[in-house]
Amino acid sequence: MTSSAPFLLFLAGFLLVPASAVFPAASTFIANPWLPFKNLSGCRHGQDWPGLAALKGYLRHFGYLPRSNFTDAFDDELQVAIRNYQRNFGLSVTGELDAATVSQIITPRCGVGDFINGSSTINGSAHGRHLYSYFPGLPQWPFWRRDLRYAITAASDVSIDRSVLSEVLARAFARWASVTTLTFSETDSEAAADIQVGFYLGSHGDGEPFDGRLGTLAHAFSPTDGRLHFDAAEAWVARGDVAKARSDAAVDLESVAVHEIGHLLGLGHSTAAEAIMYPSLRTRTRKVELASDDVEAIQNLYGSNPNYQGGAGSTPESIPERNGPDGGRRRWLTILPILAVGLWWE
What we know:
Muramoyl-pentapeptide Carboxypeptidase, domain 1, 346 residues, hydrolase, zinc, metal-binding, Peptidase_Metallo, 9 helices, alpha/beta
């Protein structure tokens, strides 16, 4: 046997092994679906550029464009959409696809739109210096449903131990409970749960299909729907330092969970980059602490936890009438039952 025989035997053996046993599944090689938008950098009004139709689809998904019959023309409608996008993300409002805008567009983010039914869920101009927002119509959990139960209803598509999932979700819910009057507890009964949490791949029956690794990370529905869905294709990090993760696509699960719970409670997106409710999250980043913008937004809906020691948010008695379309009416809803009891006692 020649000196090359061992190598030839190794090569023959290698070729006889099924490819699926040697290489990871194809889905593990899926890159950010929005990376091709990098090729649009520098594109401006009046130009025709391959890929603009796909970008228009992206902008329509998040509420910036109203129709779906798109071309590769950089038309007036696209310019307006890009300007609105730049305002919402604190970028220079150029109306062009400059490098900063393209970089923001390809950043992984929440799947909830920035405009819903024509109304912005990200522009906080109605709240003065504050940048938070609410869903159209101000949906919220009613006062008789403040002790909310959640259940993990679908987790077979994600390789995270169930006990670890429970730990992460408990911490995420606790962050909101610590600043407001809501409480949360996990239940094993889906039927008894107010909130259903699941991990899904691709199309999963709610009309909002996931797009593989990166792209949209998760989405949740406004009160009192109660659905919170994570994209099971993500390289989720549930324990350890996400910044030291081996994968460049690593995403911190708790960071995304805290954000999506905000939607479950009625919060829209915020233009404050430091806020939990800011729409995007870069990979290998941990962001779990509620900012003052988040605290004030949630306390305006549900009041303040009596044990909350922070000074960022408003208490129920100090909610200004400018917050929310019903203004100060929520304070009267709190006071009226007390008055009624007093009258009955007399």
